[in-house]
Write the structure tokens for this entry.
Amino acid sequence: MGVVVNQVLVLFAFMLIGYILCRRGVLKGGFSPLLSAMLVYIFLPSKMFRSFASNFTTEYISTKWPLILISVVLLAVITLIAKFAGKALGRTDFEKKVYSYSFAIPNCSYMGYPLVEALYGQVGLLDMMIFVLPISVYASTFGYCMLTSGSISLKRLVNPPTISVILGCIAGLLRIQMPEILTTVLDQAGACMGPVSMVLTGMVISEFPLIEMLKDARNYIVSICRLIVVPALVWGMLTIVSLEEYLPIAVLCYAMPCGLNTIIMPRLVGQDCKMGAVVTVISSSLCCGTIPLCMSLFIK
């Protein structure tokens, strides 16, 4: 358990560094689009391609294919519950959407991937990436529409991370041997994903004056639901159907704090994203204690 606490605190420390440097003016808010672009176009695709190319084999598929099915079922149940929770907590239509999204969608890419890799290695990371695929599709389509009042576009699924997954699957299945210099570049780029993503998280949330909004009890309710109630629900569903072997990945995925999309997506269309920032700050702060708690309670 000490290893889990240590890894969570390391990630949180990088987030705190980004927050403090931005608040003190050392880093400017204009830097966040640059870091975001580097994550989307370099670091995250490198990590995803390397994991799939190294571990995605026919043997892996034959044993881990249930991850996709389990993820789809859990996502369907959780998003349905989240819809009712959002309606109960939100006062305006937009608040209801933000709360529903925050309840249902965890911060897997920026925080979940680095943590799982540190705990379970590259095979564990691949399991997480496979499990997160349905969540990513939902976030890029229905989630995007929810937070921006836009329309579903399949073009949003054609992006560097998706392409890297496809190419990684091909390389893994065909057992393609990559040059050592390429694997070194991919490994070093992928190693930047965790620190840079958490620094970016700190930078983004530093832009908002949050003191007054931290007094709203609803934000704490949503954060606790995201961090404890939903992982407990996942544990209960998988335990009832005797699928305990998938508990580590599923519980860890849904034990992650609220993601940045409740900030980034509304910002794209000029919507108020302060509420999303507050929920992100609260859940990201509390997760230092709740992630180890969930692992001790729900993962043997």
